């Protein structure tokens, strides 16, 4: 050890540089662990925090890009670190201090493992929120520094992947067949098993349900033009959870303010706490929309028709509510009350917004996706009458009779009375 200390003038400059590089490696290792160890709820809370917290959440919207940057800089630091270690050890050997060179090499390896990897990662797991916020700006600068070469790195990675494993495909975590088997195997009786079976059945429905079936139609959600201040929000009800921002130039929905996720609402410039939205087609599946929202850590999607026009919005909360609550329905969320009321044993009073799927659950018929695109009671009436419904209009569909009892004009509510059409044998029994 005395020989090693006596040679300090030789290895001190290299050790100082190596110490700085260990700090850099520890920073990137700890930052990677802190950011990627965050749960989805923690990331959503970051989005409603200060500038540094929102920046951390923004970086995680492109996790592959962020991970590439972190690994790139960590690799550069480690290569530089061991290069300096090798040069310093070689210098010691050239001066005849082979033992000191060996000690330095062991210290260099152990120091990088302990202080560049293990300790930073262990601390980051427990202090992930604080570290993620503190590291957001340095990481943003690191991303910007190598942004010009990121496309080349992505192309190189893709080329290696195709060359080494051209047929490699990501295996789905769960597919429809697995869920169907789970539904069959859960039929063991008991309230809990019944609840599980219902939820699994809802998951299967979501794989077939179109986005427009769950969306909130245009005109049923809060919208504002930026800039937005706190006084403008008073025009909306106290239960408003989302305010969608309109683009003045295109008249389309560009961003959303998730009021339910915000800890503190500023007096002015509320668009600063808004987040982006994704655009999904009206015919897309709800399961795909949910996957997109969760992957990009967003709250809402804008539903567009074949002409690219926004016809409604759908939120993650709406989808989760539909998944977990068997009594959930879009009409119930919009009207804040039950949309289908039972009048007597064979008659029901339903709102025009009610989906045919939910009506089937309440009345007792099985609904299946149809080629005619009928989703709601209102759509069924328009299809049957080819005009706006009027009071006492009647039609039959799938063995049920629909009679309009309230029609207040375009944009107003429609109510219908739904009753099962008696079968021929039932009518003959009544006559006898």
From TrEMBL:
Transmembrane portions of the chain: 15-38, 66-87, 99-119, 131-153
SMART domains: CorC_HlyC (SM01091)
Molecular functions per Gene Ontology: flavin adenine dinucleotide binding
Keywords assigned: CBS domain, Membrane, Repeat, Transmembrane, Transmembrane helix
GO CC terms in record: plasma membrane
Limits of the CBS domain: 273-329
Pfam families found in the cross-reference section: CNNM, CorC_HlyC
Domain CNNM transmembrane: 7-196
PANTHER family linked to this entry: HEMOLYSIN-RELATED, UPF0053 PROTEIN SLL0260
Name under which the protein is recorded: Magnesium and cobalt efflux protein CorC
Organism: Thalassoglobus neptunius
Organism lineage string: Bacteria, Pseudomonadati, Planctomycetota, Planctomycetia, Planctomycetales
Gene: corC_1
